[in-house]
Design a protein that fits this description.
Blueprint: E1 17-20, E2 29-32, E3 61-65, E4 70-74, E5 79-87, H1 117-120, E6 126-129, H2 140-145, E7 152-155, H3 157-161, H4 164-174, E8 181-189, E9 193-195, E10 198-200, E11 205-206, E12 212-213, E13 217-225, E14 232-240, H5 257-264, E15 279-281
Parallel strand pairs: 14-15
Antiparallel strand pairs: 1-2, 3-4, 4-5, 5-8, 6-7, 8-13, 9-10, 11-12, 13-14
Length: about 280
C-alpha cells in the first residue's frame, strides 16, 4: 500500500515560514510567510476611459462550468489555471467507463489559444487530468467532460501521473469516507529553481510549433467538512512534475496554503476564515 494513503502528522497553517519546493526534490528553502491582507475585488474590463477606448487586451481566463467541475483556463500557457471539484460519497458513485471516452480539444477555447491533440503526440508526457476521470463515473457526459484538453496538463508518466499523482487522487476520493463534503482545487505551478546564485523558471513547451507549457509542479488544495463538526479540515500539497518514489510520505509535499496561493497567484476558499476553531490541518483530522 502506498504511504500516501496513510500519512499522519500535519503542517500548522499560518506558521512562521512557507517553503519554496525545488524541482530537484532537495530540502525546500524557507522563505518568509506572506502577510495577511484584505482581498479586493478585481476590476472588470472597463473600457470607458481614454486608454482602453479601442478595446481591453486581457488577460482573459476562460471559465468553464461542467457536470463534475469548474475550471479556469490560461490562454498563454494552454493549461488550466485551476480545476475545482466537490466530492461526496454519493456523487462519486456510477458506472461510466473511461475506456469509452476520448481526449478532445475544447472548442469553447478560441483556436489560437487552444491546446491541441497533436501537441502531445510523441511529446514524452502523459495527458494528466486535473479533475480525474475516476471522479466522474456518474454518467457518460460527466466522464467525457474530464477528457477536454482544458482539464489536462502535461505530466511525467511513469512514477507520477500513473503512480504518485494517481495515488493522491485516490486519497482525495477516500476522504469522502471520513468527511461529508470534500472540496479539491488542482492545477499547475511554474516554480523557480536555483542555478548558481540566481533563480530561474525553466519549463519545456510541447507541440510543433511549441504550444503547451509543461508545469514544473502540480498542486492540490483540499477543504473537508463533517456535518457534525463546526471546523473545516484544510490541506495544501505541491508535487514536482517528476518521478516520485511511492514510499515518499505525502507530508513531505505539504505546505501552508498561503505558499501555494503566492506561487500560483490565486486565492483558495477565501470565504472560510483561517483561524483556530474554524480550520484545522487536514493531516491531523
Amino acid at each position: 500500500m502506498h504511504r500516501i494513503i496513510t500519512f499522519v502528522a500535519g503542517t500548522v497553517l499560518g506558521g512562521g515560514v512557507i517553503y519554496a519546493v525545488s524541482r530537484t526534490g532537495k530540502q525546500p528553502t524557507a522563505v518568509p510567510a506572506p502577510m495577511q491582507f484584505e482581498r479586493r475585488a478585481v476590476p472588470g474590463d472597463n473600457t470607458d476611459n481614454e486608454f482602453l477606448k479601442h478595446g481591453y487586451p486581457g488577460p482573459v481566463s476562460d471559465f468553464m462550468l461542467r457536470s463534475r467541475y469548474a475550471a479556469s483556463y490560461n490562454r498563454a500557457l494552454r493549461n488550466p489555471n485551476w480545476v475545482a471539484e466537490h466530492l461526496t460519497r454519493d456523487n462519486l458513485k456510477g458506472t461510466a467507463d473511461r475506456a469509452n471516452s476520448e481526449f478532445k480539444e475544447d472548442k469553447d477555447i478560441p483556436p489560437m489559444f487552444r491546446a491541441l491533440l497533436k501537441d502531445y503526440y510523441r511529446s514524452g508526457f502523459d495527458r494528466g487530468h486535473m479533475c480525474p476521470a475516476a471522479d466522474a463515473k456518474k454518467d457518460t457526459e460527466s466522464m467525457n467532460d474530464t477528457f477536454f484538453l482544458s482539464n489536462i496538463a502535461p505530466q511525467v508518466g511513469k512514477g507520477f501521473n500513473r503512480n504518485y499523482w494517481a495515488s493522491l487522487e485516490t486519497f482525495v476520493r477516500d476522504l469522502t469516507k471520513s468527511f461529508d463534503d470534500v472540496y479539491c482545487i488542482s492545477g499547475p505551478l511554474y516554480l523557480p529553481e536555483k542555478q548558481g546564485d540566481k533563480w530561474f523558471v525553466n519549463y519545456e513547451v510541447i507541440g510543433d510549433p511549441p504550444n503547451v507549457a509543461v508545469p514544473t509542479h502540480f498542486f492540490k488544495v483540499i477543504l473537508a467538512k463533517r456535518n457534525n463538526e463546526p471546523a473545516f479540515a484544510i490541506g495544501a500539497f505541491a508535487l514536482p512534475n517528476k518521478e516520485i518514489d511511492n514510499s515518499a510520505p505525502l507530508t513531505s509535499f505539504s505546505l501552508p496554503i498561503e505558499s501555494i496561493e503566492k506561487a500560483a497567484g490565486l486565492t483558495f476558499f477565501d470565504k472560510v476564515e483561517r483561524k483556530v476553531g474554524v480550520v484545522a490541518p487536514l493531516c491531523s483530522k
